[in-house]
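Sequence decides. Consider this:

===
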Amino acid sequence: MPVRIISTPKKVTAVLTGEIDHHNSAVIREIIDQALRKQQPEMLVMDFGEVTFMDSSGVGLVMGRYRTAQNYGGKVEVANLSMQYYRVMKLSGIERLAKISIKEAVKK
């Protein structure tokens, strides 16, 4: 399973694992959207700590989930990014939509 959902009353955390590319992003998107529809949380945290590869589909995944979360009045946080994926998210402008952060082990 490329994503594991952890729900609390006000927050949904999507722990992403493995590769995020055009082949599996649709499955990930549907699983997260289903959790958002069911829970309608104040916060969606997308945890990239276990992602081993990401292409531009990862940026699209975050942008789409931002729009979906906004429908419920929610916010999005993108957490545990590697330095490489943090740079990609920053260059894409995601930080204007969501809080982004790198893995603690990467910080210096």
Remarks:
- The longest strand covers residues 43-54.
- The mean pLDDT is 93.
- The helical segments are 25-39, 56-71, 83-92.
